[in-house]
User: Fold this.
Amino acid sequence: MMRFLLRRTGQAVAVVFVVVLLVFILAHLLPGGPRAMLGLQANPVTVKQFYAANGYNDSLPVQFGKYLWRLAHGNLGFSYHYNAGVGTLLVQTLPRSALLVGLAYALGLLIALPIGVLQAARRGKLIDHALTAGALVVYSMPAFWLGLVLIIVFAIDLNWFPAEAPQGQTVGAVLSQPNALVLPVLTLAAGTVVVFSRYMRASMLEALVQDYIRTARGKGIGERRVIWRHALRNAILPTITLVGLSLPFVLSGAIVIEQLFNYPGMGLLFWNAATVHDYPVLLGFTLVVGVAAVAGSLLADILYGIADPRLRVGRSS
Amino acid sequence: MELSGRRSPKTFFVREARPKRLRESTWKTFVSSPVALLGTSVVLLVVLFSFVGPLLYPTDQIHTNLAQVRLPPSARFPVGTDDLGYNVLGRLMAGGRASIDVGIAAALLASAVGTLYGAISGFVGGAVDAMMMRIVDALIAVPALLLLLLLASMFTPTLFVMIVAIALISWVIPARLVRGETMALRSREFIEASVGSGAGMWRVIFKHVIPNVAGVVVVQATFQVADAILLLAALSFLGLGPPPPATNWGTMLNQGLNYAYANDWWLIYPAGIAIIVTVVAFNLLGDALRDSLEVRLQRR
Assistant:
């Protein structure tokens, strides 16, 4: 177990290094070089100062060293567009995105778990096929289109919910407009339902052929209890792990949803930055999400190892 | 477990367990599957619609016509006109062509690069393999849409740039897949015999590895066409897709969004349904191909 942890951590550190290197390379591939980070109208004096301050006149390895040094001090760059540090901008928008994604995740799991269990229990029956077909259609549906249709039906035609997400600056202010959260959360949750229900179904199918299930049935326990107690408890762990792993990918789904519903989170910030070529924000955001993804998967692996006694030994393969 | 890829739980209609006769051919399995039939015929229909359609139903997709803006469907315009006076039915064809061009080209490029990279990494092994795979891990860690938005902001997103950018993001999936297959193949006798009789790395890769991983790669490439079409649509919907006069289904929806309040449904439903139908078809085709190709591979 210890060896596995060390090896796995070493790998994660290497991947983080490559992510940083990738972002560094992208900064140099910017049209016109790193000066693009100051915007198109930057005057030569500013550019000179910027290059001197950030060491862009040095050789590339030295530049990379200085870049690492800045990152180590939490300096992600400065957005000329917002006139604020990238780190500050991320800290401002992160709670709002986390709220939206968190709600969508909770709702998605709540819907997906019973669907996956039902499909596994009725494997090969009509209901299983129907739900699979439904999952395929939702999977193949662009999230923005689903959001658009929901807006047309529930905001414009029926006028049940507003078409714009809450604009509050704090989490409390956002939560004070639950009505406005319904459509964005539903749209984002739809995609997660598909993914989680597929995981859950596969995981349940695996659990249902185990020996302890046969034992439980042999003892005369009712089928309902076998499925919802014995199988579900064992099937839910891998699903939960995968939920953690897919978080960064939901963040990218949040870009589309936040833009469509004008929700002021990280996604909207990133989209705005892309349209105005605000490269410090784009690069900083990419770096943070990439590193978070690596850290998340490392954490998931470690927790998984701790949670499942079968994995504590002999996982060095 | 490792950093999970972008499309892990994604088998929808794969036959799970079924008796298969030893000599049953790949082709026969494929043809006898209703999923394959549905997937193939819808893909063919979409391709016909997008590529042959404009020949049978020519429309002007270049000049705007402000005299016929946002007309509802009628005998003259079966799906109405958009805010610039383009015939929407013709626009759907043009948009489909761009979507399918980008989807297929990006998937082909990504598969070629990924296969080669994965085969080399798996064949060489050791420290080189570890290094090559950390690069793959890093690229998988950053969500695709994020990188794509960044690239689209850096370079003018023409169709060609789109293809390269999407391929640049998605080659890592086949790379990891092929690397795993190659590692498994390396220890098999026919490869060992080949190496033992003096064959170099390239010869082994092209003569033995690639023919043996072709099935897996083809299946993956089919799914990647679907993914690429969705990525292009999302990027275009966000307003960072190929600039006019080029169009695709995502761009059409980006324009249609402005008229959602005007109830111009023909600017929103047809393009969205076109995306869904096409992506579903490619996903079904992938499932069916996996069914017939990979079973054969597993039987070795």
About this structure: Chain B touches chain A through 54 residues (CB under 8 Å). The mean pLDDT of chain B is 82. Chain B is about 70% helix and 0% strand.
